[in-house]
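Quick one, tokens below:
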């Protein structure tokens, strides 16, 4: 993931937002229109019109027939339309609300918590401790028998929500069921649950859902699509296929989770290797009952509403699409590990503040995990890490919540976010000359100052800070700008002597689809985008040099607000021409290559762009 890619479009099909749903409906309409026009009675009508060979009586009968046929087919078309669009996706507002929360608490709590990473006196480190059943090859019956001793009397949902608040977290996601298949909620699908098989006999998911509701804290659940108790073979990769019976079981459990715990902010599907139809069925099951519930990309096959990075992964890209980075306090485990070597607290707090800032500056949400002990209590060290991040957020939260990603590719001092007329600068390293440079900043900078602190002077595109305030970690500068935020992209391409503007892949912002078919699938390239300074107004053609396209395809070339199509053939190496197109002179026109619309979820650029050239044709087209 350490590529030079800067942008990631995590979910290919943007159908999740309101905007895209209408796009989808439109494409559905286009499809229906062409189907209708191509259908027999229409062909008959146009034929008879052409030949004029039918009598008027015949024509009348024919008209009635055609009218009723059209009405029937329109009704049928409507049904198809409604059916295709039956499962709504969360609205744009919901997606934005989800994105604005930025920092949440993940909780890995289950039967595995009772073992704390130890089985029969041996510490297991081959896998995360929540997967000790697999790591230590514990026979199913022996593992299931642990339930008789599982009595988390120290589980205090109210205190956990309070801890999340103190940490500055805005949402909580709890493991309703992990890969071991042990249910932390009351389910009718199996007796293998905390309610039916433990002395505790209470629904932990319910207790937390209720506490979250009391505190206005967004609440979601983690749900593993694989299940060792159901019969999936434990395997380190956890990419088991899902049998038909298991699919039905999962769907029934999802319905319970969506029906019995109030509105869920998200369902955090994890692992397994669902088929495309299974992923769609899981997503549809959720959205049918709660259209506003966001679904993690690990439902796979591009059915998620938000992208999920790999565990503890922070990608190098920037995007304002919904995505999340799930993180554990120590990358070795999510579930409680009694023998975890705990490093100095302040370093750990700083490590997670830095990770939070990186994720948020790239547009994502940071989901930081705690692994309570088998008795339900939170590990003190973990609570202290969270409270430490909370203390920093109390001062600097303004620069985190509800912000957009940084508008600069790279800053030599650290990171940035944007909100309204504020640009927030997170200072990780102080440059030797004491200046925070904002390359390409074109908006006029107004006031600047340390967050809740002293004023700073501004010189052109730099804020002069001199030194850092005290020995504060990651201090933040609050800078106001005037008007719309305008940042000149670092790589605005210009024409050569002949008027040709050449765009190369190494200068492109790359947008990817994440969470394709499964956990182990690399993100796929969805779009490449450049910024062009057009110095000469006039007519241009667009030439795309490409290679390794397997099939002929039409691609969308977006030049500013203009969309043109180019046809690429399945040759090893070739060129395609699109346009002509008229451009007026401007210092920043975005040019991008995208899959031909209408797009389906997961659509990708399955060829390699060698270059894109804008060729000047003259002042007007000949
Ligand atoms: O719930 C947590 C994990 O148990 C679950 N996802 C997070 C949120 C997960 N299940 N499987 N995987 C993640 C796949 C991860 C596999 C690996 Fe590894 C992680 C391979 C290498 C690092 C696990 C740890 C196996 C070896 C070390």
């Amino acid at each position: 993931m350490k590529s030079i890619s800067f942008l990631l479009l995590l979910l290919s099909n943007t159908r999740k937002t309101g905007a895209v749903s209408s796009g989808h409906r439109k494409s559905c309409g286009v499809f229906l229109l062409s189907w209708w026009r191509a259908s027999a009675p229409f062909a008959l009508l146009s034929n008879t019109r052409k030949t004029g060979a039918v009598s008027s009586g015949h024509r009348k009968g024919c008209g009635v027939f055609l009218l009723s046929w059209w009405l029937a087919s329109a009704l049928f078309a409507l049904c198809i339309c409604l059916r295709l669009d039956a499962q709504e996706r969360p609205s744009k507002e919901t997606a934005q609300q989800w994105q604005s929360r930025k920092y949440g608490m993940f909780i890995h709590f289950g039967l595995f918590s009772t073992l704390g990473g130890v089985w029969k006196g041996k510490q297991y480190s081959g896998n995360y401790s929540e997967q000790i059943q697999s790591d230590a090859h514990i026979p199913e019956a022996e593992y299931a028998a642990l339930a008789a001793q599982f009595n988390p009397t120290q589980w205090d949902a109210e205190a956990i929500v309070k801890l999340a608040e103190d940490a500055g977290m805005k949402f909580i996601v709890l493991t309703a069921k992990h890969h071991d298949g042990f249910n932390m909620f009351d389910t009718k699908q199996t007796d293998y649950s905390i309610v039916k098989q433990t002395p505790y006999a209470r629904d932990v998911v319910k207790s937390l859902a209720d506490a979250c509701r009391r505190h206005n804290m967004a609440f979601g659940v983690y749900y593993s699509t694989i299940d060792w108790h159901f019969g999936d073979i434990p395997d380190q990769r956890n990419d088991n296929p899902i049998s038909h019976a298991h699919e039905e079981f999962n769907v029934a459990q999802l319905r319970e989770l969506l029906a019995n715990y109030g509105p869920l902010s998200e369902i955090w599907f994890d692992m397994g290797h669902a088929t495309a139809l299974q992923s769609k069925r899981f997503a549809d099951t959720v959205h049918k009952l709660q259209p506003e519930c966001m679904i993690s990309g690990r439902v796979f096959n591009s059915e998620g509403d938000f992208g999920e990075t790999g565990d503890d992964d922070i990608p190098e890209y920037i995007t304002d699409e919904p995505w999340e980075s799930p993180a554990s306090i120590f990358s070795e485990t999510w579930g409680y590990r009694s023998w975890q070597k705990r490093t100095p607290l302040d370093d750990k707090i700083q490590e997670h503040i830095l990770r939070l800032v990186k994720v948020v500056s790239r547009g994502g949400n940071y989901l930081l995990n705690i692994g309570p002990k088998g008795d339900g209590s939170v590990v003190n060290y973990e609570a202290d890490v969270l409270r430490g991040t909370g203390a920093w957020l109390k001062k600097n939260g303004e620069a985190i919540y509800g912000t957009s990603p940084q508008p600069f590719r790279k800053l030599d001092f650290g990171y940035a976010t944007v909100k309204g007329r504020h640009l927030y600068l997170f200072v990780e390293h102080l440059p030797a000359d004491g200046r925070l440079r904002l390359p390409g900043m074109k908006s006029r900078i107004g006031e600047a100052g340390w967050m809740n602190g002293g004023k700073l002077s501004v010189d052109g595109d730099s804020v002069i800070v001199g030194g850092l305030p005290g020995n504060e970690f990651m201090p933040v500068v609050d800078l106001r700008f005037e008007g719309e935020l305008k940042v000149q992209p670092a790589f605005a391409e210009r024409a050569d002597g002949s008027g040709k503007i050449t765009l190369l892949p190494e200068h492109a912002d790359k947008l990817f689809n994440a969470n394709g078919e499964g956990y182990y699938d690399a993100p796929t390239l969805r779009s490449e985008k450049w910024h062009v300074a057009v110095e000469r107004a006039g007519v241009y053609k667009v030439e795309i040099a490409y290679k390794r396209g397997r099939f002929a395809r039409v691609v969308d070339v977006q030049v500013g607000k203009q969309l043109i199509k180019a046809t690429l053939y399945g040759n090893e190496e070739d060129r395609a021409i699109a346009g002509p197109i008229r451009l007026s002179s401007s210092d920043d026109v975005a040019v991008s290559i995208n899959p031909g619309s209408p797009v389906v979820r997961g659509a990708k650029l399955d060829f390699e762009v060698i270059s894109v050239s804008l060729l000047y044709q003259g002042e007007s087209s000949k």
